[in-house]
Amino acid sequence: MPGRGRPFEKGKVSNPKGRPVGSQNKLTGVVRDLVTPAAPKIVKKIIEAADTHNDAHMQRVFVQHLLALPKFVTPPIPNFPLVIDARTAFAEMAVVIQRMARAELDIDSAGAMIDKLRTLVDTYARVELQQEVEIRRAQEEGDGS
Length: 145
Prior knowledge:
By secondary structure, the protein is mostly helical. The chain is 61% helix and 0% strand. The protein is built from 5 helices and no strands.
């Protein structure tokens, strides 16, 4: 007999053939199908209004809503650049932002690329710093002998 605050036994599902875990609401699918074809045009207009016209409301929409909804699309990372050091990774971030502004990349793909590039910048910077530290230690040991 379950306890007073627990009307069902722990771990026992009352409807084992119920809705599968992870299945989406039908309305979500319908809305996605309606919005997806028009999304690039709408996003381009929002970016244009936010940037060109310095529209504070559109800037807020861009940051709060467009950047906060990556779950609609799982982005591939198209044409990911070859990065060989922190400086080129940092420069590629600017290129990605420019491509997004020209609507060559959707926001989700650009965000994914920026995240990966930021990781590369951090990694390369750490490696370069470690190499610099090792070079200086070797110089100090050479001067001290």
